[in-house]
Amino acid sequence: MITSKGASGITGAGFITLAATLSIVPDIPIQSIAILVGIDKFMSECRALTNLIGNGVACVVISISEGELDRDALHETMAHPLEIGEALEPGGGG
I want to staple 7 with a disulfide (CB 3.0 to 4.6 A). Which of 13, 44, 54, 68 is the partner? Predict the structure, then answer.
């Protein structure tokens, strides 16, 4: 947990952090990092997706706790996300 802070903002930094963490764990051979190189790109995409979902859920939870959530607008946006998103784009007619 301590070594993962700050690694999410830079692509590939998660792998370097993992390598640094694994190098100090005596039960795991450092050569096992070579196996992870092949799947690091996929793992990076999963980390980014998890981060995105977590941030979205946190925004909804905090807005509920602050009494700021417009549930009707949330339901409308979730029912038609593409149309509303395109309308909010510059020049999108919204």
Answer: 13
| The pair of three-digit structure tokens given for residue 23, joined into one six-digit string | 């190098």
- Smallest Cα–Cα separation from 55: which of 90, 8, 14, 4? 8
> Which tokens sit at 25?
């764990």
Residue 88 sits at φ, ψ, to 5 deg, of -80, -15
| Beta carbons within 10 angstroms of residue 44's beta carbon | 16
Answer left, alpha or beta for residue 81, where phi above 0 means left and psi between -120 and 50 means alpha. Answer: alpha
Chunked in runs of 10, what are the mean pLDDT values of the chain (94 residues)? Answer: 54 74 77 77 80 91 94 90 86 63
